[in-house]
Amino acid sequence: MARSSRPALNPDRVLSAAVALADERGIESLTMRRLAHELGVVPMALYKHVAHREALLDGMIEIVFGEIEPPAIGGDWKAALRRRAVSTREALTRHPWAVGLMEGRTEHGPANLRLHDAVLGCLRAAGFSVEMAVHAYSVQDAYIYGFALQQRDMSPESAADFADVAQRQMVEYQAVLADYPHLVEVVGGYVAESGYDYAAEFLFGLDLILDGLDRLRLDG
Amino acid sequence: MARSSRPALNPDRVLSAAVALADERGIESLTMRRLAHELGVVPMALYKHVAHREALLDGMIEIVFGEIEPPAIGGDWKAALRRRAVSTREALTRHPWAVGLMEGRTEHGPANLRLHDAVLGCLRAAGFSVEMAVHAYSVQDAYIYGFALQQRDMSPESAADFADVAQRQMVEYQAVLADYPHLVEVVGGYVAESGYDYAAEFLFGLDLILDGLDRLRLDG
DNA sequence: CACTCTAGGTGTACGGCGTACACTTGTCAA
DNA sequence: TTGACAAGTGTACGCCGTACACCTAGAGTG
């Protein structure tokens, strides 16, 4: 029954088509109907391969987790965790739709569990107490996902819309700009000139956190 | 035309009803139709007071920003920013639906702008260079919103579902648990016993970051 | 070989969503 | 008294996820 010309569907093909569609068109464009259309198939055909939309998202998230490089356990913990953080930000930059979906899943796939385990193992091997490992994990992940969240929300559309938005708000801007002098100085001045390098900005906060953790490593 | 018994609709009443509904039933339950029903009105009536659903969300976000205590400029900067961070987390705990919506808006209300301006002003008054103020802002907000994101996603539903999920996954757990020894030690051991205090956990990372910034204050 | 079983693709239909558009109706200014 | 206008209504459209019944090509079995 496979339409002879088409390569035949399976869960993996559905999943990667879904990831590709979300990457290219945004998560709000990922509907079962559009995904089916993309695969040259009728919407209901998808349900032979994924239970429902939510399960589709679970699988997509697991793909993203699979792209994150787990830290080595037992070596230079700071370098390992730094690489893992950078790797996570890169994955979330490739797949911005994943931010805000990854943390909340009730289904934890093996890639997810493997990564969590490796980070905790890395921290324990570095000499962090169990209690401190929890703290360290918490602060790192909050920062990483929070940064990715900010980047997603400020990043491309806002940059594209910038001229439009700026123009539309210019009239009221002129009126109220005096109320926000520091915003003017920092955003209107510095950022407008020097720009905003996400990768560099990310490393600033990351190193601040890792250095802070290093100092506390043997206290907990 | 106001249905004589009802207090008459206006944008503020619509907005606070929307916030209340999202708080109580979750953002996915906030549909124009349900909100209208809640207000004893037909769905289309809402459109006399808000342009569309997206504008409704803009207004709701502005309410949340209004609940965040802006830092005082010129006093003890660390204490002021600490309070602001705590105040932000509290607002996002009251309104979990706001996480992930606040950063991305293209419409910036006065409460939003005022808060941003105050934080930047506080940093500048503390002696941070413009460049360092950007870094400092970035790392703080990434952490704050990231923490709120994690809290939202782990927090109440997952806690409620915990028994269910644990039970359902127990059978495969037994099989694969050996693959994740550190997860077992930290989550199965420490966390299961000592629990997880969000407020305390938040302060750990927050103070780590603020102390780190203090050290860098005059370098940039 | 004939036969059944079944995995995978189809078509139809339902209830819910946001909202465009045309309408009624209560209020008040002139 | 009138007539304009703001606020609420009713209907309808095109999306969405997905339940359910159906078809059909090919693999497995006697």
Structure explained in plain terms:
The structure is a homodimer of 220-residue chains. With 220 residues, the first copy, chain A, is mainly alpha-helical. Helices cover 68% and strands 0% of the residues of chain A. In chain A, helix 3 (53-66) packs parallel to helix 5 and helix 5 crosses helix 6. Chain A is flat, with a radius of gyration of 22 Å. The N and C termini of chain A lie far apart (62 Å). The mean pLDDT of chain A is 89. At the A-B interface, helix 5, helix 6, helix 7, helix 8 and helix 9 of A face helix 5, helix 6, helix 7, helix 8 and helix 9 of B. The structure holds a DNA duplex (30 and 30 nucleotides).
- Helix-strand pattern of chain A, N to C? HHHHHHHHH
Radius of gyration of chain A, whole Å: 22 Å
Number of strands of chain A: 0
Shape field of chain A = flat
List the helices and strands and how they pair.
Two copies of one chain form a homodimer.
Chain A: H1 11-25, H2 32-38, H3 53-66, H4 77-94, H5 110-125, H6 130-154, H7 156-176, H8 181-194, H9 198-216
Helix pairs in contact in A: 1-3, 3-5, 4-5, 4-6, 4-9, 5-6, 6-9
Chain B binds a DNA duplex (30 and 30 nucleotides) through loops.
Give a short overview.
2 copies of one chain form a homodimer. Chain A is mainly α and 220 residues long.
Salient structural properties:
homodimer; 220 residues; mainly alpha; 9 helices; 68% helix; DNA-binding
